[in-house]
User: What shape does this take?
Amino acid sequence: MTEYLSDLPSHIQERFRAHPISRALRRRPKVYRDTSNFSTIDYSDIIAVDQRYFLVTGHTVEGRFGVDDQIKQWVPKTVDLETGNSHILKLVFHETFDIEVGGFAIRCYRSPEKEARVLEHTRGNPRFMQGYSVEDAAGNLVRILDVIRGRQLDKHIYRFKCSHEEYYHQHLPGLMQEFLDCARGIEMLHANGFRHGDVRRDHILVEYGSNHQRWIDFDYDFHLIEHPFILDLHELAGVLIFLAGKGDHHPRSVSEDPLLGQRVADTLSTDDLSLLNRTRIVNLRKLYPHISEELNTVLMHFSQKSTVWYDTVAELISDLESIFPS
Amino acid sequence: MPTHQFLLAVDDTPASQRELQYVADMLQHREDIKLYLLHVFPDPPPDYYVQGGTLSDYLQEQTEQAAEIFKHSITTLSQKIAFQHITTTTVLAEGRPLSRVILDKQQEYQCNTVVLGKRGISKEEEFLFGSVSNTVVRASHNFAVWIIA
Assistant: This one.
């Protein structure tokens, strides 16, 4: 039987009516205690779980290249009608798909259960988004997440309008301390048998005010048997290369860059490119000679040239700590 | 009492078949040996249980596959090595890399030699998917490793 706002406690109805959303209703708001059919849950509906009432105020969108701006129906933005606090809810959506890494298809699993376990394991850890999981009336594992007020790491970096050299000397050391703390968070996950699963620069939020970097989105999982944590390590290196370079660099963008140009582009060889992404420059010292040899050596372990790789995030952190002592 | 104990990691790949043939040729007519055939299988993929699979289904499926692998392995070996020298073991990795299980079994059985088949893989493949043989070689401090390429 469909439940409506009028079926809810009176003080919740009052809170709803006090919310600006009540003045722009397109249809009679429904109450969902079973979120199985999440695609029908819309703006102004209410999700009732854990004896709380979450008013849907919108949906999050994909940030991944190629599917960016696609609405994630299973991830509504909400307001808790009791407290007035904003939360992101993640509803159960199992999917399996292949991603391409280095020319290889790797099966990826979206797993609410895995995210719930990571949330529980990282409770109270400031490097990770916070929240908890609860079953809805149909037994679906709903994750109730606190909103992090912050900016995606890539957007944070793009705001530095200074030269690379100034960025490198003035800003990177501080950014690296934060990044190292985030990397230690990943190391801790691995030590406990968990993967982040979707390490990306836009899955680190830089908190407004404190500038602390924090991980979000843990619902992807992989099944890489011999190297169970390698994708986290590889993607973490991707974030590092992005930070060190103040953005991504590709041979074409180098030749088109007035400060670098064809003269620098001509010095690049296959050896300078990423092991698993042959359009991405890893040997950043060729672009920016002020990058230290030590840092560049770390980056080059992820290049086509390298025959020796880091096996663990802990090894990568250890080398970075000696370059960026706290 | 055998003076040489060999741990042979086997599966259903051509590399494993080459490994078995090589061992049979090298150890033919030896009486002072014991061969432990080890088949390690990984945990089920993350969506296995979501799709209704159970651990007992998975174990049964994998055990049946292992029986086939051992049957072929013993056929190859027993052409040159006495059947009574051969023992088989099947192990679920339980979250461990396959190389870790092999190393654990080497310790448990006190094998002097670990034998592995190696397939040719690219640098990118090795980085992403790992190399069981390279990991075992790197960890081999008190035993020999035969890599059959």
About this structure: The first strand of chain A starts at residue 3 and ends at 4.
